[in-house]
Design a protein that fits this description.
By secondary structure, the protein is an alpha/beta fold. The chain has a single domain (about 10-110, about 140-340), classed as Homocysteine-binding-like domain (TIM Barrel, Alpha-Beta Barrel), CATH 3.20.20. Helices cover about 45% and strands about 15% of the residues. The protein binds methionine and zinc ion. Methionine binds near residues 34, 77, 81, 194 and 255. InterPro entries: BHMT-like (IPR017226), HCY_dom (IPR003726), HCY_dom_sf (IPR036589), Hcy_S-methyltransferase (IPR051486).
Amino acid sequence: MVLETVVDHHPNSSFMASFLRQCGGYAVIDGGLATELERHGADLDDPLWSAKCLINSPHLIRRVHLDYLEAGANIIISASYQATLQGFEAKGLSRKEGEALLVKSVKIACEARDIYYDRATKGSWDISGDVLTRQQRPVLVAASVGSYGAYLADGSEYSGVYGDNIGLDTLKDFHRRRVQVLAESGADLIGFETIPNKLEAKAYAELLEEEAVNIPAWFSFSSKDGINVVSGDPIQDCALIADSCEKVVAVGVNCTPPRFIHGLIQSIQTVTAKPILVYPNSGETYDASRKEWVPSTGVKDVDFVSYVGKWREAGASLIGGCCRTTPNTIRAISKTLSSSAVRT
Ligand code: MET
Ligand SMILES: [Zn+2]
């Protein structure tokens, strides 16, 4: 009996192309994790944000991953966004305990995938020749890495302003061990998310090379104006850094209002031929001082979905949602994409 593997481990250049081919030309990314945990009652008012649940309620994280898989996601992103060794140490945990929690974030996502496959494949075996093949939707686990600003939990994640004291080496040293641990955690790739400036993108690119990270990565930036990333660095400059890093298999934008996404896809395309990913937030704005989302600016699921075909046509091949999107959003995205004529 031969089980078809979910993803062939090709060299980086063909990793994403091969995955997208297996998915039918495009892939669905999951939706907001932290905000969904909150919707289920988790109190994330903590410097660790969603990573707090790695300690208190791993079952809830697994459940949200599963909800996204049931909704049609091909990629689930681990709860390590704000999980940093420095942040865990500030809570009194040892380095070893912190590293174990990073690995645990990926394990939880892998467990959710196993449970999903077990449920979804019951009775769906295919016999062709002597080979018994499981008909599985391809699912990747992305290990999330949030920015230095996310660790600071002071809003600089959305300003990209770290001050003159924070240079390239500081950022590399800050992220180094976490990236090493996540690279060995069993994840299929690393998702560098909500990157707020060029400097941090450069730090990630250099780290991937220096540490000979053996899994691919994506770079995802966030923007407040549709032209620049949140720090004011042009999106093209940032995407160019991703383009020149051999380990980066997709580049794009997350946690950005839907109305800016189309223009950003077009800008990114002028500097790279790598697959483009977009997973916008609901369009609401996060008020960092009040630590809450301002809802009046948000987009309803149906409106969010009205953009999806256009993003796909513009050239995005990985589409999902970020903060305040839910499994319903992802279900709607998945439905829209599968009924859309634009498949490649
Ligand atoms: C601030 S963006 C957060 C991204 C992370 N993957 C989450 O959904 O929780
Ligand atoms: Zn977000």
